[in-house]
Amino acid sequence: MKRIIDQIYRVAIYLRLSKDDGDFSFSDGGKTESNSIQNQRELLHAYLAKHPEMELYGEYKDDGRTGTNFDRPDFQRMMEDVRKGAINCIIVKDLSRFGRDYIECGKYIEKIFPQLGVRFISVNDGYDTAASSSTDSLVIPFKNLINDSYSRDISIKVRTNLEVKRRQGEFISNFAVYGYCKDPADKNHLIVDEYAADVVQNIFKWKIEGLSPNSIAVRLNKLGILSPMEYKRSHGSRYSTKFKKNTIAEWSHVAVRRILQNEVYTGGFGTGQANHTKLQNQEICVPE
Asked: Among 62, 109, 148, 272, which is disulfide-ready with 72 (CB 3.0 to 4.6 Å)?
């Protein structure tokens, strides 16, 4: 790799790790950053130490973000700084950390960065746009294609694994459905949340008595019962949704209808415990 020393470069180091890539966990032990991110950081700082023509402008980190697209918070923040003229050099550990979309990676490296006057360096790949050769123009797209293929292969394996878990009756969502909570000993197993279970049972009971979803929602709000979102938040959950309109989410006919139609209650998923009743000739599995 040729050494370019005729100007000072304002450098952004970009770090990324997908959840599927390995060491990433916030849930066990309160880890705030994956080990691989730290390894990437150390390698890039060591590289900068050998290049006095480079000044570190900032670090941009997407920990736990997929490389299959570029809709990542810190990547977009970095590009904003690039367009402002604050950065004219981007350094990554390798091309897979930059991204795994063959077409988009090529577009950034071959079109967008040159147009913006940005030097791009992939340390482990030995690639530097300031010293690229005709060989690089053939090798780099091939490496991007391999990274893309790897990502697709991982995606297929993950989906297959999740499908197997579903067929075995295991729960795989990030958040337990209202009325249940995740078993501390087994995150793929649901156990009954006694308080919320009573609310679910009342919703089905009132429906059997002839109340509409809207009437049930009004009754729940008058009784001061927290909506599923607020109930999760009251227990420390970071659950959020784009559909929240008010500061405090209330029960709505939509929320009630979702419970009445949810397959967890109608017997579509294995929950381990259920109270069987009848509602319009449909078997309902209400937590008890």
From this structure: 62
